Amino acid sequence: MLVNENEAGSGLCLDTLSLGYGSRMIVEGLDLKVPPRAFTVLLGRNGSGKSTVLRACAGLLKPRAGSVLLDGKPLARFTARESARRITILPQGPVAPEGLTVSDLVRQGRYPHRGLFSRWSRADEEACQEALALTGMADLREQPLEDLSGGQRQRAWIAMSLAQQTDILLLDEPTTFLDLAHQAEIMSLITTLVKSRRKTIVAVLHDVNQAARHADHIVMFKAGKLVQQGPPHATITREHVRLVFDIDPEIVHDAKTNAKFILS
Question: What is the pLDDT of residue 256?
Answer without folding.
Answer: 64
